[in-house]
Amino acid sequence: MSKIDSDGQNKNGQPGKKGFSRRSFLGAGVAGGAVATLPSGAEAAQAAAGGRVLGPGPIPVALRINGKVHNLKIEPRVTLLDALRNHLDMTGAKKVCDRATCGACTVILAGRPVYSCSVLAVEAQGKDIQTIEGLGTPDKMHPVQKAFVENDAQQCGFCTPGFVMAVKAFLDKHASPTMDDVKKGLGGNLCRCGTYVGVRQAALDASRELKGGRRA
Q1: How many helices (H) and strands (E) would you count in the chain?
Q2: Burial of 110 from C-beta contacts in 10 A (0-12 / 13-18 / 19+)
Q3: What's the confidence (pLDDT) of residue 194?
Q4: Which of 36, 62, 75, 142 has the fewest CB atoms in 10 Å of its CB?
Q5: pLDDT: is 206 or 40 the higher one?
Q6: Which residues, in sequence order, are CB contacts of 53 under 8 Å at separation 6+?
Q7: CB 3 within 8 Å of CB 17
Q8: What's the pLDDT tens digit per position in 111-120?
Q9: Is residue 105 within 8 Å of 93, Cβ to Cβ?
C-alpha cells in the first residue's frame, strides 16, 4: 500500500485511495460557503417583484414601551437593548454579557421575559414592551421593587433591573409560588454578588402582597 501524505496523494503524486484530503475538504468548505451566500430562487423572485428589503441603512421602527409609542430610525441590526439604551436613554436594562446568558437586560415582551440583547428592535414592533422604567417610582414602588429593598436583594445593582423584571413576569404567571418554583422560574438570571437568598425571598413576599400567595 502506498503511503498517503497530508494532501491525500501518494509518493508518486497520484490521488490516494482515500479520495478526500484536508485540502479538498477546505476547498469544499469554501465552495459550500460561497454557494450558501447566493440568493435562493424565491428571494430572487421576490426582489424581481419589488419585494421590500430592509437595510442596511436606518429604517423607521415604532416601539410601544410602557404604554407609549416611540418612533425611531435605526438600522435593522440594532438590538432591542441597544435601541432602549442608546436611542431612547432607557438605561435600566443593563448590557453585561451581551450574549443572552446573564439576564441583566431582561425586559417583558408580549407578556414574556426576554433577553433584550438577543431580540432585534424590528422584531419587537407591534408588541407591548415593559421595562424597569415603567414599573414604579421611588414614591410609589411596585410590590416587587419594594420587596427587593426590604429583603436587601441587591448589591452592585447590575443584575437587579433584570431580576426585578424576571420576577414580575414570573409572578404574572404564578400567583402562589413555592420557594422551589421561584428557584426554577428565575434560573435564567445570574447574580455575580450572590444575592439569590434575598431575591428569592423578595419574590415570595411580592407574591403575597400581589395576590395572597401562600408561604413556602
Answers
A1: 7, 5
A2: exposed
A3: 96
A4: 36
A5: 206
A6: 47
A7: no
A8: 999 999 999 9
A9: yes
Question: For 118-138, what is the mean pLDDT?
Answer: 97
Amino acid, res. 5: D
Q: How far apart are the first and last CA of the chain?
A: 73
Beta bridge partners of 108: 113, 130
The whole-angstrom separation of Cα 185 and Cα 173 is 10
Q: Are 75 and 58 a contacting pair, CB within 8 Å?
A: yes
Q: What is the pTM of this model?
A: 0.74
Residue 202 backbone dihedrals phi, psi, to 5 degrees = -60, -40
Residue 6 has pLDDT above 50, yes or no: no
Residue 196, CA distances (Å) to 47, 67, 117, 156, 176 in order: 52, 31, 23, 13, 19
What tens digit of pLDDT does each residue of 15-33 get? 555 554 543 444 444 444 4
